[in-house]
Amino acid sequence: MGGFLMAATRKGLFDVDCDGAAQPRCIGFLGDPVSAVLQNGHDGALYAALNLGHFGVKLHRSDDFGQTWTELPAPAFPVGIAADKEGEKAPSVSLIWTLAGGGPEQPKRLWAGTIPGALFRSDDRGETWHLVESLWNQPSRTEWFGGGYDDPGIHSINVDDNGRIVIGISCGGVWISEDDGASWTLGGKGLAATYMPPDRQDDPTIQDPHRLAVCQDAPDTVWCQHHCGIFRSDDGGRSFVEIKQAGPSTFGFAVAVHPKDPKTAWFVPAVKDECRVPVEGRFVVTRTRDGGKTFDSLSAGLPQEDAYDLVYRHALTVGADGKHLAMGSTTGAVWFSKDGAQSWRMLTAHLPPVAQVCFADAP
Amino acid sequence: MPRVTFTANLQRHLDVPSLEVEGARVGEVLAGVFAQKPLLRSYIVDDQGRLRRHVNVFVNSQMIADRDGLSDAVRPDDEVFVFQALSGG
């Protein structure tokens, strides 16, 4: 396939050669944590979000495929916005967790999901940003809480060709907009949170979807790798059914769905929430091709003993053909598959921890 | 006018030479800097204008006390230093 593979890591953004012929090449921000990366399908522009720690979150755009980068204003809360509770400080963005492009008629549109759990919108290629107040002002937002971070965050933004937006929040559930973000409906019925008291486990407001993936050609199908298992929706995220058996484990962070076949999805399992390593040291990808009735555990080309790789929520991706996949781990390895995950090739084992991998079209 | 000097670590990200700007409070001095370097603002203060947690500001040799309101006094012959705390790995 044409194009290249970007790996956003703890210490820079890398171009990883899928042929394995060349070493990964840093294409920006060496030494700095890259928290999210996006290629806008409309114009090919690359966007990279940074978390500089001392100096806050940053956003950069490249219009020449990573040769040069221009810093843009990062999404930020309005000055003077009220704190959620008396005695608390007013919010400030601490992480840009995900970036997404707009719908078919929105070439300049960008969405950003952040920690704290806010959605920001740009209509000018990231030059200016606006808080989506329709979501921020949801009364139930005060029920959200952080999962692994101090504050809740938006990590999944799926915009389908019909304009529906489905977002995932840890821990704030699944939210759906049918009107370009003007209003929101809480979905996620059927998700189950066993980390909550019994009478709140099915409360959609406090669910922890680790990642949501929408099938491009069948957007009513939404796959969810949840903190407590794997779920599938056939009604655009409004309700889900649990997939209780999926290879060695149903715990994990990442999910990818075939862009044309809603019944095919991939996951990268770990033992469970309190032990985030591959089951018995064997690193596998699990794949269903029948909507979750059965799963294959795919291991060809992956380490099968003493492996401690964990793939974060944005670090598994599938290409437009549904055959090419890539994934990167917290131990700095990147693998590539040309055959729908049936077999894998390690491209590098020496990157910093990988936050995201992303296929990009070449010039 | 007060003179403002920035940690060399910022130079990795932005070109920020020492500047002389008007102001009788730290916040006023920094606002003068940000007027000349708009992108610098978010490196020093958060969305609400509070000093970032791991950024320190000194007036001469004294660390400022008001990290949220930036109300510490600055005299015309003072030097303001913007440093970063040490951390990482």
Fold and architecture overview:
The complex is a heterodimer of chains A (363) and B (89). Chain A has 363 residues and is mostly beta strands. Chain A has one helix and 28 strands. Chain A has one domain: 7 Propeller (Methylamine Dehydrogenase, Chain H), CATH 2.130.10. In chain A, a hairpin with a 2-residue loop joins β1 and β2. Chain A is globular. The mean pLDDT of chain A is 96. Chain B is α+β, with helices and mostly antiparallel strands. Chain B has a single domain (3-84), classed as Beta-grasp domain (Ubiquitin-like (UB roll), Roll), CATH 3.10.20. Chain B has two helices and five strands; from the N terminus they run ββααβββ. Chain B has helices at residues 26-36, 41-44; strands at 3-6, 19-20, 55-59, 62-63, 79-84. In chain B, a hairpin with a 2-residue loop joins β3 (55-59) and β4 (62-63). The A-B interface holds A 31, 52-58, 71, 73-74, 76-81, 89-93 and B 9-10, 12-14, 39, 42-44, 46-50, 52, 54-55, 84-85, 87-88.
Question: Which key features would you list for this structure?
Answer:
heterodimer, A: 363 residues, mainly beta, Methylamine Dehydrogenase, Chain H, four-stranded antiparallel β-sheet, 1% helix, B: 89 residues, alpha+beta, Ubiquitin-like (UB roll), five-stranded mixed β-sheet, 2 helices, 5 strands
Quick one: how many beta strands of chain A?
Answer: 28
Distance between the termini of chain B: 38 Å
Query: How would you classify the helix and strand content of chain A by structural class?
Result: mainly beta
The helical percent of chain B reads: 10-25%
Rg of chain A: 19 Å
Number of strands of chain B: 5
Low-confidence stretches of chain B: none
The mean pLDDT of chain B is 94
CATH superfamily of chain B: Beta-grasp domain
In order across it, which strands form the biggest sheet of chain B?
A: 2-1-5-3-4
CATH 4th-level superfamily of chain A: YVTN repeat-like/Quinoprotein amine dehydrogenase
Number of helices of chain A: 1
What would you call the structural class of chain B?
alpha+beta
* CATH third-tier fold name of chain A: Methylamine Dehydrogenase, Chain H
Stretches of chain A where pLDDT is under 50 for at least 5 consecutive residues are none
Strand count, sense and barrel status of the largest sheet of chain B are:
5 strands, mixed
Biggest interface, chains and residues, is: A-B, 22 and 21 residues
Instruction: Please give the domain count of chain A.
Output: 1
